[in-house]
Amino acid sequence: MKIAIISTMNSGDWGGSEELWYDLVKHIDDNHQYVIYRYSDKIPSYKQSFSINRKIKFKKISFAYKLINKISNFINNKKSIFFKLLDTVIRFFSPYNAISNFDIILINQGGTYDFLHDRFLLNLVKQNHNRNVFLTCHWNTDYGKPYKFKYIEARNYFNCFKAIFFVSNRNKQTTERQLAFNLPNAFLLKNPINSDFEIMPYPKVKNDYILASVARLDVNCKGQDILLETLSKSIWKNRNWKLMIYGSGSDYEYLLSLIEHYKLTDKVYLKGYGSITDIWKKSHLLVLPSLSEGLPLTLIEAMLSGRTAIVTHIAGMPELIDNNDNGFIAESPKDVFLNIALEKAWNVRTTWDIMGEKAKLKALQYYEPNAGEIFFKKIQSIINNTKYD
């Protein structure tokens, strides 16, 4: 069987959405032929040996490709015959021409509508209408719809896929609202956890409660700036807590400046990357002040490690967090609502360990140790028109 996987992630070398295709390939035998398209040719060091051993063929989506795609997008908006002919010529440069006859084509997206901005992907989807082309969607925004969004055109493309997979029911509902259309070919999937989790004893409280924010440093999605604004209030400055912000990203310098601006240098620390084990051996509570999500792996990892969390009422997070039982939900990603949730959590801080046990039990109901293998079986069952749960 020939399998092509196209990752649309272009904001870094690796991300949560990459874990799915990696785990899928890891669980499939060597009798299949793989081609994987990525914007980056870098893979985390702990995954490289697997890639070499399995002889996976990688194709880097180059700068030249981006340039040709940009020209193609420009031409597509022109109505003259000349530009239409030129667009036809440009299609011959598509890197996906070689996989048009593959048995399975999986477009693995970060954002739900990433493929709509790629003329070559759109052509691939259109040419393979009703064939074995699958789409995964790992992120969407709960608010509004994308700027200048052509929902009828988008709806037509979504109808071309054999199946569309979402990581949370809320993301599916939001997409259907934005398209003004119920997707008959939509399913839910579970993402793999980055590594084997470990139920760690709740750390003793020495001088301070240790809060952890674990996410990409991107305030437009992850909302770390709102968290800092909330914690800058005098009532919070006078309490015994420390916040460790784990992650990397384009807003590192900005967050560093905000910490200084709000005079939180003795309370908040940017820690860079941290392993799951190291983070939850030391930390008492997860705080995710996100503005948009899918269903973040960091939340599941924290819960599986026996830690409670404060989250915003965004995407799939309320599907795991039961408010005031195994965690806390801020009704909106704004400082006033985040402050309410933080205050509720702080008032019962001596019970965070008990709430963490409840969080672990809830996460275990969601956790799927062989997520990639199950996902591949779902794809096969759809192709073969057989039923699966």
Biggest sheet record: 7 strands, parallel
CATH top-level class of the largest domain: Alpha Beta
How far apart, in Å, are the first and last alpha carbons? 24 Å
Structural class: alpha/beta
CATH homologous superfamily caption of the largest domain: Glycogen Phosphorylase B
Write down the Rg.
22 Å
- Backbone shape: globular
* Helical residues, percent: 25-40%
CATH topology assignment of the largest domain:
Rossmann fold
Strand content: 15-25%
Question: How many structural domains in the coordinates?
Answer: 2
Q: Strand order within the widest sheet?
A: 3-2-1-4-5-6-7
- Residue stretches low in confidence (pLDDT < 50, at least 5 long) are none
Q: How are the SSEs placed, and which strands pair?
A:
Blueprint: E1 2-7, H1 18-26, E2 33-38, H2 45-53, E3 57-60, H3 63-76, H4 81-90, E4 104-111, H5 119-127, E5 133-139, H6 151-158, E6 163-166, H7 169-179, E7 186-188, E8 209-214, H8 219-222, H9 224-231, H10 234-237, E9 241-246, H11 252-261, E10 268-272, H12 276-282, E11 285-288, H13 297-304, E12 308-312, E13 327-330, H14 335-347, H15 352-366, H16 371-383
Parallel strand pairs: 1-2, 1-4, 2-3, 4-5, 5-6, 6-7, 8-9, 8-11, 9-10, 11-12, 12-13
Helix pairs in contact: 1-16, 3-4, 9-14, 13-15
